[in-house]
Design brief:
The chain is α/β, with parallel strands linked by helices. Helices cover 45% and strands 13% of the residues.
Length: 273
């Protein structure tokens, strides 16, 4: 009883730390590379064009509308970032002696002992990098279009100022992963094979936290060349449009690989770092 009373006097922020052992993520089972993700999206949207659900003119209008709406804002972000970076570097600059004599100052050595060559030292800025996680849970459905747009704005900003980045969509949809791995989601035999070979995203060992599964689908990264990124951006705009208009008023049908699921946020953070 005295111990319980003492604990009630303890501030919530002062409770003792609990140390746990984290399991090792099996990245080969967790991450679907951007090349595969974009390949699936391109195949699906090309098929929609063939079936008449989409036209190339409409796709171009979607992409152009996104650029018109966001290019000015992205340029403003980049300008602000460069200004702040330059100001930070200048504030840390300092003038130092090199130890080498400046021959142009030798004539003044009798009345000025400051005859050494000076150099301005400007420290290099911190290296930046962003890992952007897109929550692909069912509860995000109504907010998914806006979230994808923000992700694309940040990705374009990073490319403009040369910040390394990677964009992952995280969830635990088995259907989406089956499609990523080339399995037929309507075939029971394929489903059994998938469960046998693709169901352990974290090692399960004694005295470690028992995590449920997580899937990371890589959408964009800073290593893409201009052609790859332009194609990926077009696909991302179409995915964004597929979440607009509710269930019955979508201008773009949703790809099966974009299935929404649950929110394994902790697992996604552990896997991405």
């Amino acid at each position: 009883l005295p111990i319980c009373n003492e604990m009630t006097l303890l501030d919530e922020k002062c409770k003792p730390y609990v140390y746990v052992n984290m399991p090792t993520p099996n990245l080969s089972q967790i991450v679907t590379p951007a090349k595969r993700v974009q390949e699936l999206m391109t195949e699906d949207f090309d098929e929609q064009v063939k079936q008449g659900y989409l036209s190339n003119e409409k796709i171009q209008s979607f992409v152009q509308d996104f650029r018109n709406r966001n290019e000015r804002y992205i340029a403003l972000l980049a300008k602000e970032f460069e200004m702040r970076k330059a100001a930070k570097s200048f504030s840390k600059s300092k003038l130092s002696d090199t130890g080498d004599i400046d021959v142009n100052k030798l004539a003044s050595y009798k009345f000025d002992d400051n005859i050494f060559r000076k150099v301005m030292l400007t420290p290099k800025g911190k290296s930046h990098g962003l890992i952007l996680l897109l929550d692909k849970s069912g509860s995000m459905s109504n907010n998914m279009a806006g979230s994808i747009e923000q992700i694309m704005v940040l990705a374009l900003f990073c490319r403009k100022v040369n910040i390394p980045f990677v964009v992952y969509g995280f969830g635990d949809s088995e259907e989406a992963l089956m499609i990523d791995r080339g399995f037929n989601i309507n075939d029971n035999g394929d489903y059994r094979k998938f469960r046998e070979t693709n169901n352990k995203t974290f090692e399960l060992k004694v005295n470690q936290v028992n995590f449920s599964n997580v899937r990371l689908r890589e959408y964009l990264n800073s290593n893409m060349n201009n052609v790859e990124f332009t194609s990926a951006l077009k696909n991302m705009v179409l995915v964004k449009k597929s979440f607009e208009g509710g269930r019955y008023n979508r201008e773009v049908p949703r790809a099966p690989s974009e299935e929404l699921s649950n929110t394994p946020l902790t697992q996604a953070i552990i896997a991405s770092v």
